[in-house]
Design brief:
heterodimer; A: alpha+beta; B: 7-stranded mixed β-sheet; 49 strands
């Protein structure tokens, strides 16, 4: 009885979508049961990404057994420079701390919670005996996309981080707060900027409302 | 239409738009570009308010932020705002303002009786008079506030929206006058990230008040052309951001500054906009350049508070910028050259000007120009009296004695409608002072200037222009440019253009400092009052009185007389007050010292400080994946931290008590499900994971088998219970820890702190997985059967015993099942990835119908665990409770070499007799439910105080025992089982209760296996 239709049966923005006034600019996408996007990318656009695999990786970057195992499976170099990410069309590897990363697979309809388990099992085999931890956090967080020239003007309304500087480069990432929500930001595009905002599932509604209010003056 | 005082100049107003506004109920017109003050003066409205204490008539004195008198009540209803300076309100169509602090009207004010009683209302009057009896203070305060208060606060909720925003920059420049603009050009051209902030609607500062024909030029262009071109250049620079209508309100450590931007105030409250009303900026700057200019100092002469007595420079601003000539005949009273520009500009605008100069022989170039233009100049003279009550009709002028301390000869009466006074200029050092910078006294300007090195290490900043005491336009431009270049260079940006904008300084002669202008009678002994603080209604005589009464410290003086306090922050009064004190005490001004300016520089609305964080955004409502089901099924929610958890699920018209009684009975008789998703969860992995837990928890963890669960207590270093939960060994080096809902973040921090700072040699990684898993707790006699219907695992006690774990597929969903119990029943906590939480819940509810399943909330969970004597950390403990106090010695493994808190058990206080211990309590009357928090007393008396020997921590009516039960912390409790104790309630009842073992239900624990 479990299939991909269930994925968003408990979408964090579900209630918001149900309560939504049809006259607002938010559009409801049926298969996501959540407010899919607001605004337009010429100025600013906020959208909610479908589910994706997210794995928290812990290990020693200086341990070549660890970094090469990661590289062989993720096809990405382990980023060792603070607040940077490695990305290809399929997935990203984000630096979270000196011994902590997140591997994130781009949203894909074929993915369910088993996919993360498969990945973890595969990687665990390669990391036999290596000090490391792989933890599935796919359902812990959801990710919003912010696009358009006003992205930084919006982000500075909630984050004390120097977003214009710290998130300028494509592949920059940073853990900070937005209002009261802890967020993981990463820049995936510039000109115009596109920033992904990862937030705890339970803070998603709060963050969505905060961003929605803050972006009103720009579109 | 826009007023009798309007003159035909271009100024900076837009005559194409006529704006209607209302002041004290009367309709007037003004123009776009006007302030409320300039529009009122244009309409010959001079009387705008009553003073704070004496209710004396007051008029507009300044033209900007320095205004102490013209505080008005702006707008009505929910939009009303008290104490707004008329000089800072940009005029908009439909504006409504009223004078404040007067009743019934500004022209006839009953409170003026205070003025007739003035000699009985000296400094410190309130302190002296209303001190006793102390019990009457509340009554006094009510009337004092009514009589002495300023405007009134709105009573309804603020309808506006506010925002906060953070901004980082290389160079923050405060003030957009000549120095600030020049600094921005230098730093901006060098490529630094520049933020230029100015409080006014337009950039330009003093340039806005400069007449095009006054002969000032910058780089060969007229000042207005230069200004236009400069603002355009700065706007075009991508690395420069300009914010106008924005006041830097606070300067805090490490170049952290706050600023209030009035985004839509100038459109009025009815303007519809997607923008917030105001924006509160929180700025971090690598370097700060303060170009805050200077504020003119009024001369202190008799009756200097009459409506129509203004600052000389303000007259110039009204004439040149707003095209308002406040009076056809103007008497300017000065001690310095700057006033002569006002004389020239006002005369050009058609006024008859007389200058009264205290100096014997004023010599500067502006003086010469004024004399050449036919301005009458009376030297070595002073105004001894101002005639007129609600306005000025004339002044008396007398010759000064040689020492300037008295007057001589007969008075000449000079007819005039307006008096402009200037006692020199005070650098605006407020922000610098907030930044912990010290100021030093500069004799030549008779004021204080920043000593820039005093705060350099904490708040690297520079100053340029008027704040340094500089006067000439060329000097200000040069200083600004240098400061901007240097600040940019500090941030590794080197300026390409080394040339500052050029302008000529006009030569100025020295000023003659006479702090208190003598009058016909000694200060404070006649009818003429010398006001130095207009907003707080403080006179020179008040300072003398304060000194006589022993208030010789400047900080005491400030508080005793209220000089320089409140919304004004001493903008026009501060230096004069210090000088009067110094003169009175016969010491130099630096010896008197200075007070400290405090943030905010000007008032900041509470709305802006709150920003977005109100209503739905005040606090996040965290919801579990099953939340929508709970809502649809009429759950009543409880706040647990920031989580919303179902407290109970009432059926039909059940109240909380009956719902909880039903749920609690049902779980023990059939089966119930609880949404336990909010429990904290931490994934722990690594070679040393078991050893790590062995140190963190009080019991042993090394031998826990894979697939087994164990309950653990976490203590802090003091041996006190800090958190609890069940941890399960998923693999040899892999554990799943659960914490209390509220403790999730705290416990992870705690684990990381020990790992990172004390035990870095342990190979362990902790990862929070709280929200990865949705959790349903299935409890009750039918739990096994229910799960058996949805899952292929063998749920027999042998195959799946209590305190063990199995992977499973429940209702088609991959799950982790932990057989652990917080109710004492057969109990399984089913964990699935969050996205499947609702599906799992619905599947269980649906399959559970044949078992008469009920859903239950946190209240029933609490009751059921209390029946079993299970503690809740934070409810039955309070940070002072050890495991021994809880009767949980069984969980302490003293054979372990060490664990957190172990050593504290031998502390005398932890080991002593007489500690409070957890016990069960049964009231003698089974129907009485003791209130939680009720105290047991050693001896009952008629009234408190009574000695307490403990208190009730949890208390319920148990449906399964059909009587009340309670848990309590009681002194030496466990040795007193069987004793009768008395709880004294707050309403005076004494409840007799028996001390019992804390396990009330199923004492043998056989239900857990079913």
């Amino acid at each position: 009885m479990v299939n991909s239709e269930l994925i968003f049966a408990t979408h964090p923005l579900l209630e918001l979508a149900q309560a939504m006034d049809k006259s607002t600019a938010e559009t409801v996408v049926a298969d996501q049961a959540g407010p899919a996007s607001i605004g337009d990318a010429d100025r600013i656009r906020l959208s909610c990404q479908p589910a994706s695999i997210k794995i928290n990786l812990r290990g020693e970057s200086t341990d070549s057994a660890f970094s090469s195992a990661i590289k062989s499976l993720c096809q990405l170099e382990l980023p060792v420079v603070a607040n940077t990410a490695q990305t290809d069309s399929r997935s990203s590897l984000l630096w979270l701390g000196p011994d902590e990363w997140q591997w994130r697979h781009a949203p894909d309809a074929s993915i369910d919670s088993k996919s993360a388990e498969t990945f973890i099992t595969e990687l665990q085999t390669r990391l036999e005996g290596v000090h490391s931890a792989l933890v599935d956090v796919s359902d812990y967080y959801c990710i919003f996309t912010l696009q358009g020239p006003y992205v930084y003007d919006l982000l500075e309304k909630g984050s004390p981080l120097n977003v214009r500087h710290n998130l300028k480069a494509v592949s920059a990432c940073a853990q900070t707060r937005f209002g009261q929500a802890a967020v993981l930001l990463n820049t995936v595009n510039d000109a115009p900027p596109e920033v992904h905002v990862q937030v705890r599932w339970s803070f998603a509604e709060y963050l969505w409302l905060y961003l929605r209010e803050g972006m009103a003056e720009f579109y | 239409v826009s007023g009798v005082n309007r003159i035909q100049e271009r100024g900076r107003i837009n005559r194409g738009t006529a704006l209607r506004f209302y002041y004290d109920g009367r309709q007037y017109f003004g123009h776009q570009g006007d302030t409320l003050a300039s529009a009122l003066l244009a309409n010959a409205v001079y009387l705008v308010g009553r003073s704070f204490k004496y209710h004396r008539p007051r008029g507009i004195m300044g033209a900007g932020v320095e205004e102490p008198n013209a505080l008005v009540q702006l707008e009505k209803g929910a939009y009303t705002q008290p104490n707004v300076k008329a000089t800072e309100i940009e005029l908009y169509d439909g504006l409504i303002a009223n004078s404040q602090n007067c009743w019934p009207s500004v022209r006839f004010d009953v409170g003026v009786v205070n003025s007739w009683l003035g000699r009985f209302l000296p400094a410190g009057f309130y302190y002296k008079t209303f001190m006793w009896p102390a019990s009457l203070w509340m009554t006094y305060e009510h009337f004092i506030r009514k009589a002495a208060g300023l405007g009134v606060s709105p009573r309804s909720a603020d309808p506006d929206r506010y925002e906060q925003a953070h901004r980082n920059c290389d160079v923050l420049i405060v003030g957009g006058g000549p120095a600030g603009l020049s600094a921005a050009l230098a730093a901006g051209r060098a490529g630094a990230d520049v933020l230029l902030i100015d409080e006014q609607a337009e950039f330009g500062g003093d340039l806005l008040s400069t007449h095009p024909a006054s002969g000032y030029e910058i780089d060969g262009a007229g000042v207005h052309d230069w200004l236009k071109q400069t603002v355009r250049e700065l706007t075009d620079l991508a690395n420069v951001k300009l914010i106008s209508r924005c006041t830097v309100s606070g300067y805090y450590d490490y170049n952290y500054l706050t600023a209030l931007e009035r985004v839509t105030d100038h459109y009025g409250p009815l303007h519809v906009s997607n923008k917030p009303r105001q924006k509160f900026w929180k700025i971090r700057a690598k370097r700060v350049v303060l170009c805050t200019g200077a504020i003119e100092r009024p001369l202190l002469f008799a009756d200097n508070d009459r409506p129509g007595v203004m600052l000389a420079s303000a007259i110039r601003t009204y004439v040149n910028r707003y095209c308002v000539l406040p009076g056809k005949s103007i008497c300017l009273f000065t001690n310095n050259d700057s006033t002569y520009q006002t004389a020239l500009d006002s005369q050009r605008a058609g006024a008859k000007i007389t200058v009264v100069d205290v100096r014997e022989n004023p010599q500067g170039s502006a003086v010469r120009l004024a004399r050449d233009a036919g301005v009458r100049v009376l030297t070595n003279s002073a105004i001894s009296r101002v005639v007129g009550k609600h306005g000025v009709s004339s002044v008396d002028v007398k010759m000064l004695s040689e020492d300037g301390k008295s007057l001589q000869g007969s008075a000449e009466q000079i007819e005039c409608q307006i008096v402009g006074s200037s006692g020199g200029w005070n650098p605006t050092v407020h922000l610098f002072s907030q930044a912990r910078g010290k100021v030093s006294y500069n004799e030549s300007i008779a004021s204080f200037v920043p000593d820039i090195n005093t705060c350099a290490s904490i708040n690297p900043s520079r100053v340029a222009g008027g704040i340094k005491g500089s006067r000439g336009l060329g000097t200000c431009l040069q200083e600004g440019f240098e400061a901007g270049s240097a600040a940019a260079k500090d941030c590794s940006f080197t300026s390409a253009s080394a040339q500052a904008p050029q302008a000529t300084d006009f030569a100025e002669g020295p000023q003659r400092v006479i702090w208190v202008i003598p009058t016909d009678h000694p200060i404070g002994q006649g009818s003429g009052k010398h006001f130095h603080d207009f907003q707080n209604d403080v006179t020179v005589a008040d300072i003398h009185l304060a000194a006589r009464e022993g208030f010789v410290s400047v900080e005491h003086l400030k508080r005793y007389t209220t000089t320089g306090m409140a919304t004004d922050q001493g903008k026009t009064s501060n230096v004069n007050a210090l000088a009067i004190m110094a003169e009175n005490q016969g010491v130099s001004i630096p010896e008197v010292g200075t007070t400290t300016f405090r943030p905010p520089y000007t008032p900041v609305t509470f709305g802006a400080v709150t920003g977005q964080h109100r209503r739905a955004l005040f606090l996040q409502n965290r919801k579990t994946p099953m939340h929508s089901w709970h809502v649809a099924n009429r759950a009543v929610f409880e706040d647990v931290g920031d989580w919303k958890r179902p407290r109970y699920f009432p059926r039909r018209d059940e109240d909380m008590h009956s719902a909880v009684q039903r749920e609690s009975r049902h779980v023990r008789e059939a089966v119930g499900v609880l949404d336990a998703s909010t429990l904290g969860k931490i994934d722990i992995q690594g070679r040393d994971a078991a050893e790590f837990l062995n140190r963190i928890y009080t019991n042993g963890w090394l031998k826990l088998g894979v697939g087994k669960c164990r309950y653990g207590l976490m203590l802090n270093e003091h041996g006190m219970v800090f958190d609890d939960g069940v941890t399960t060994r998923l693999g040899e080096q892999h554990f799943h820890m659960t914490t209390t809902t509220g403790g999730a973040a705290r416990v992870l921090n705690w684990l990381e702190e020990w790992l990172q700072t004390e035990w870095p040699e342990l190979q362990v990684y902790c990862t929070s997985v709280t929200e990865q898993w949705a959790v349903v707790a299935v409890n009750g006699p039918h739990a096994k059967a229910l799960l058996g219907d949805l899952c292929d695992n063998d749920f027999s006690n042998a195959a799946f015993p209590h305190m063990s774990y199995q992977a499973a597929t429940v209702a088609g969903i991959a799950a982790r099942i932990f057989r652990i119990s917080f109710t004492g029943e057969q109990s399984y906590e089913v964990n699935v990835p969050a996205r499947y939480g609702l599906a799992l819940w619905e599947a269980l509810v649906s399959a559970g119908r044949r078992y008469d399943l009920c859903v239950y909330g946190t209240e029933t969970m609490h009751l059921l665990r209390a029946e079993k004597g299970f503690i809740i950390v934070g409810q039955d403990t309070d940070g002072t409770v050890t495991p021994a106090d809880l009767g949980m010695q069984w969980i302490i493994n003293n054979n372990k070499p060490d664990f957190l808190g172990k050593r504290s058990f031998s502390r005398s206080d932890t080991a002593r007799e007489g500690r409070k211990q957890l016990v069960g309590i049964l009231t003698e009357s089974p129907d009485i439910v003791l209130p939680e928090g009720a105290h047991f007393v050693t001896q009952v008396r008629n009234s408190p105080p009574m000695e307490t020997e403990g208190h009730v921590t949890s208390s319920y009516y148990s449906p399964n025992l059909d009587r009340s039960i309670a848990l309590a912390l009681l002194k030496d409790g466990r040795s007193r089982v069987g004793e009768v104790v008395t709880a004294r309630l707050i309403d005076g009842q004494n409840i007799k209760s028996r001390v019992v073992d804390p396990v009330f239900f199923d004492t043998s624990g056989e239900r857990i296996d079913g």
